[in-house]
Amino acid sequence: IEPGIALDTVMKYISYNDAKVRDQIGKMLVSVENEQAQKDINKKLSEILKSKDQYKVLDALDVDEKIGDRAQYISDDIVILLDSNDIIKQKVLKVLPNFAKVFSEKYGLEKITVFLDQKNEIIKSNTIECLGNMHEYAISTLPKLIDLAVKENRYSKDIFPAIEKMGLPTQEQMKDMYSFLKDKPKEIKISMLNVWEKFGERANIYVPNIIIFLNDEDNDVFDGIPIDYNTLR
Q1: pLDDT score at 66
Q2: Three-state secondary-structure class, residue 198
């Protein structure tokens, strides 16, 4: 009879002290299909995100994570939270991939990659995961990630799986990539080749550029080249 009242009531339980109730509320809000109701939900989530109550903000971000790309309608409010404390920042980095395309086009990726320079190791790891989950929309950050792998090798175990999620660069991007990788340590080159190897025959178009990597004395890099030799012949 009065859907607005029902929605108001449901929204009040976003920060309820029972996790099962919060989870159920999240599922209910995700299932809403009415366009006006979705707008009302976004409006109320926006109000919560602007509040100074950290727990309510985190609970609202939980809902944003569940509703997926619908969160793009409150993307401005979410992006502002990147300047909040580290606890909220970690949650925001989990939500951002839901609207990777909108974020990369509207805000640019510098707002995220800047966290790769922070001392907080958890934030760095969250940032790497976030960029990987943004897939092809974060591929421009590849040089920044590789620089981090060179500088702080312990992050390599997270960086190269993230790069794999981004997929293959375009041929134009790949030309720049090889120029960028040319003077990098052999271990980094091999790790990148191992990533591209997983794409199988789709990586064969890069053979002319891959030849650059043959210039090593012990052929370690050569052994990692992702070429289907039968196709090449």
Answers
A1: 87
A2: coil
